[in-house]
Amino acid sequence: MIKSKVKYFVTLVLTVILAFSTIFSAYASTWTLTGDTYAHDPTYIQEGSGTRWVFSTGQGIQVHWSTNGTTWNLGTQVFASEPSWWATQVPNHTKLDVWAPDIYYYNGKYYLYYSISSFGSQTSAIGLVTCTSITTGDWVDQGMVLSSSSSNTYNAIDPNLFADKSGNLYMSFGSWWAGIYVTAISKSTMKPTGNAYRIATKDGGIEGSSVVYNSSTGYYYLFVSIGVCCQGVNSTYQVAVGRSTSVTGPYYDKNGVDMKSGGGTVLDSGNSSWKGPGGQDISGTNILIRHAYSVAESGAAHMLISDLQWDSSGWPYYS
């Protein structure tokens, strides 16, 4: 009888510990970052098994690096001077001000897409710069990828390169106006080939798209930033998501609303410490990086990184 009671007590304790461990793991998914974490529209990648890198909006494309993923240092900007085609294609952009880069590794090379524009204008362009080693920094300008003007329905900013379930490459891009688009990317030129398809729109602002295919669920997920950015603690940015069985959509939210009709399930609307989360990027299917505006620092933009998790219904979440 005594042995039976002891066994029951040990089993009960282990069950409670396991339960608390499960609860903790489900809610302790945001990384604790230190060092220089000032960033806007960040994109994340790990170079091999070594250094982690974050590229973000800023002069010549801002760069941060970390050896462990939690302590961050400011690196050397990608562009020291403007490529000549910038002034021709987007004459009113602000010198070395570069927006919303996206980093992608393919076939032994790093591809860094970025956008230049004048705020509130459709006169924009997406460019590409490549290197074989981020640590070495042997960046080579590959010129313009896509452009837009007032005659286009889309705005050529906020690029995001991704692969479909068969390994074909695509790029999502766009903002406001007619919303988010997706186009196929040539594996030889790493630039668009074929038509662009609209996959999302929303009144009040939509941009910063990221698309990822999750082989475990069989869905493509479209993450977007909705609302208004760049207003410090008054920013209304939120991270939202929808999913589709096809790379070109339609993408539906949890309520079955098509994202081309304004749908999108909100994942993150901020909290009392961090306002206006958005500009997100997905690394693999398990890491989500975004920026948010610090209340304690009167609206300074910092990068935040979380473990992206998936519920039993195949929807992403993080905390």
From TrEMBL:
One Gene Ontology molecular-function label: arabinan endo-1,5-alpha-L-arabinosidase activity
SUPFAM superfamilies assigned: Arabinanase/levansucrase/invertase (SSF75005)
Catalytic reactions of this protein: Endohydrolysis of (1->5)-alpha-arabinofuranosidic linkages in (1->5)-arabinans
Protein's pathway: Glycan metabolism; L-arabinan degradation
Record keywords: Glycosidase, Hydrolase, Signal
Location of the active site: D41 (proton acceptor), E207 (proton donor)
Pfam families xrefs: Glyco_hydro_43 (PF04616)
Residues engaged in binding substrate: D41, G120, N155, A156, I157, D158, S175, W176, W177
UniProt-listed Enzyme Commission number(s): 3.2.1.99
Broad enzyme group: hydrolase
Cleavable signal peptide: 1-28
Family: Belongs to the glycosyl hydrolase 43 family.
This protein's name: Endo-alpha-(1->5)-L-arabinanase
Protein's organism: Paenibacillus cellulosilyticus
